[in-house]
Fold Amino acid dehydrogenase.
Amino acid sequence: MATGRHVAIIGAGAVGVISAIEALREGHRVTLIDPGEPGGEQAASYGNAGWLSSHSVIPPAEPGIWKKVPGYLMDPLGPLAIRWSYLPKALPWLIRYLLSGWTPARVEKTAFALRDLLKDAPLLHRKLAEEAGVPELIERNGVMHVFPSRGNFDNDLGWRLRKKVGVEWLELNADEMRQREPDLHPRYTFGVVVEEAGRCRDPGAYVAALANHAIASGVTHVRAKATGLRLSGDKLVAVVTETGEIACDAAVVAAGARSKQLTASVGDPLPLETERGYHVMIENPEVGPRSSMMASDAKMVVNWTNKGLRAAGTVEIAGLEAAPNWKRAEILRDHLIGMFPKLPKDIPASRIKAWFGHRPSMPDGRPCIGYARASRDIVYAFGHGHVGLVGSARTGRLVAQLLSGKQPEIPLLPFAPERFL
C-alpha cells in the first residue's frame, strides 16, 4: 500500500489523537473527526484514573467469576454491577465475558497479549508528552498495590500470571509500607510496588495537548459525529457524518464505546459494550498517598492529579443511554476516606467532584486492532476497556503501521477483530 493517503480518524480520544500523530509520521494526510472537545469531560480519556500501568495485563473476567454474577445483579453499588433492565441486551456479551476467563489458560493468553501492547508504555507516553510540550504531565515513578494481608496477594491468580509474563515488583511488609505511606489505614499490611509503571497528572489536559500538537503539525480537526463508512466494492470512499460525507482513502475507527455502529455499517457486528465507570476527586486534600496506589479490597485506583486526589474504579453494565447512578461515586468517596483516616469526614461538597463515563470493552479484555473484513482501507482501534490510556501509545503506532501496510511491531492476532466474527 502506498503512503500519503488521506486518512480519516474517527474519535479524538487518546487512541485517536495518538493515531493521528503517528499517521502523520508515516506521511499520511489526516483528518480527525469528533463532535466533542479532545480531552473534554465527555471523553473516557478525561475520566481515566491516570495510571500508566504497564502491568495491567489481567482481563476483568477470571476463573470462577460466574459464581459472583447473582451478587452483581443484587448489589447496584458493588465493584461490578449489572442493571436488571439492561440484562437481556447485555446477556450475549456477558456470556462471552464469562467464557473468556473460564480457565487460567485463557486468562494467560490475554495476559501475554496485553503485555506486548503495554510494555514500555510510560516511556512511550513520556516521549509523546515531550513532543506536545507537556512533559510534566507524565511521571515514571512506579505504582503501589496494597492488600489487607499477604494471603490476599498470594492467592491472586493475576499476580502469578504477571510474574509469568515478565512483570517485576518490590514487596513491602507493614512497616515498610508505613514508612512510604504514613497516612494509609493500618488494615493494609502488605504491598507491592511496580516500579516500571507511571502516571498521568491530568489525563484530560494530556489528550488535549496531544490533539493541539497534532493540529499544529497538520492534522485537520472536523467537529462532526460520524455515523457510518461508505465503500465502493472493497475501497473506502468516505466517512458519513451527520453533516455530510468526508471523502478519504482510509479510515480509523477509534470512537471508543460508540464504535459499534460504525463497524456494523461495513458488516462487522462486533460485541462492544460499555463498562460504565465513575471517579471522584477531592480538591486540595489535607492528606493522601505519596504514590499512586490500588486498594485490592476496594478495587479502586487512587492517584494524585493536578486537580486533586482522584479515586476511580468500579464497573457498571447498563448501556450507553441509562442515567448515572451517582451513589456509585459516593461509594468511591467513602472508600477513599476509609483508606486515609486523616482525611476529614466532612469535606465540603464544593471540593468533591464526581465524573461518569464509558469504557469501551470487548468481552475478552483485549481491544480490537486490525483491518475490517470488507476493506483493508479501514483500521479498527477500540475496545481497550481498562487500559485505554496506557495502551493508547503503542496502539497509535500499530494503527500507523497498518495504514502503511508495514509489519506491526507486535503480533496482532490476539487483537484481530475476526476473533468475534
Summary: The mean pLDDT is 95. Residues 388-403 form the longest helix (16 residues). The first strand starts at residue 6 and ends at 10. Residues 6-64+103-420 form a domain with the FAD/NAD(P)-binding domain fold (CATH 3.50.50.60).
